[in-house]
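queue> pop job 88
queue> type: inverse folding (structure -> sequence)
queue> payload:
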């Protein structure tokens, strides 16, 4: 997912030509990882359990990686997150002979996403010691449920932190000096200066064009992946706003608030989809050809995406956009892992 402030203006629609972003109609995005990195250790560090003469305490959040974003278009919020984390713990136990054993280790949580109850939690000892097994068992049985509850609290607090985001309205006005258009953002009635994107700032297309090919293996069979990428409701969900997906020959489509437009050339359910496809920022009348080729691979799907006639000056950002705004968001929303094989 693109970092805050680094969104591609062709994939994420910028302000309208008249400078207005009324009621967050246009795409907005906020990175919530800074919130999580601050709040999650406050919740988990110090979690302690005791049972008889055995005890254990979470001492440190050693790692928190992944992504968490709040997405909004036309007032409709979407939360996408995919996290992995590692906690450190220490504990002690006293055996039947009165001998105390101490141990340290880690708790690893993997693939925390929208299906909050399905992620893995692995408890490890730094040094294997049978005498420390009661501590390990205590953590598995008593700390793991507490950690899952803390994850739930952190996610809900992250969501709640965005619930008070006020609609923004950006207006273009004429400055008193120089007669140039400047922008002000009205937040709760107070003006704040901002920069309004201009089509003049978009990189000009250079002569020539390029092609790309991506082969991606998704951990899901063909029909649900095909439906996810062709059903208007599902595409709207992972792109964060209303879209139009025409699935008959010659039918139009548009996504990302009209930043991406085109028509369907041909389509064969669960097998292949060919499109004429363009960014609105490209030279008038210039279309690329996008082909989606769905191939069954056991319980997985091999998706071969090819795109030809991409303006050379837009090639790298177009290529990166497929992963940032399609594959990662499909994984984040539907939980299907993927990998590139070329």
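queue> result:
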């Amino acid at each position: 997912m693109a970092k805050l402030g680094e969104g591609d203006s062709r994939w994420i629609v910028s302000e309208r030509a008249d400078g207005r972003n009324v009621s967050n109609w246009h795409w907005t995005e906020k990175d919530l990882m800074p919130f999580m990195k601050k709040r999650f250790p406050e919740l988990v560090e110090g979690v302690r359990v005791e049972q008889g003469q055995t005890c254990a305490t979470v001492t440190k959040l050693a790692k928190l990686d992944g992504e968490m974003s709040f997405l909004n278009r036309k007032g409709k919020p979407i939360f996408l997150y995919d996290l992995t984390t590692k906690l450190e713990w220490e504990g002690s136990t006293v055996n039947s002979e009165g001998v105390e054993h101490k141990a340290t280790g880690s708790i690893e949580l993997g693939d925390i996403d929208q299906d909050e109850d399905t992620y893995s939690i692995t408890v490890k000892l730094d040094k294997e010691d049978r005498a420390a097994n009661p501590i390990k068992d205590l953590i598995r049985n008593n700390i793991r449920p507490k950690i899952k509850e803390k994850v739930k609290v952190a996610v809900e607090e992250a969501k709640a932190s965005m619930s008070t985001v006020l609609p923004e309205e950006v207006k273009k006005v004429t400055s008193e000096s120089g007669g140039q258009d400047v922008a002000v953002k009205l937040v709760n009635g107070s003006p704040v200066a901002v920069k309004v994107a201009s089509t003049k700032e978009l990189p000009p297309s250079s002569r020539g064009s390029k092609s790309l090919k991506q082969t991606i293996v998704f951990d899901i069979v063909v029909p649900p992946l095909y439906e996810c990428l062709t059903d208007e409701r599902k595409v709207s969900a992972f792109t964060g706003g209303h879209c139009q997906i025409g699935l008959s020959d010659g039918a139009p489509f548009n996504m990302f608030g009209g930043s991406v437009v085109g028509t369907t050339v041909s389509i064969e359910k669960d097998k292949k989809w060919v499109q004429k496809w363009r960014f609105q920022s490209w030279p008038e009348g210039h279309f690329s050809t996008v082909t989606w080729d769905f191939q069954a691979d056991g319980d997985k799907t091999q998706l071969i995406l090819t795109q030809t006639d991409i303006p050379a000056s837009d090639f790298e950002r177009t290529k990166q956009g497929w992963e940032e705004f399609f594959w990662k968001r499909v994984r984040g929303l539907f939980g299907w892992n993927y990998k590139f094989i070329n």
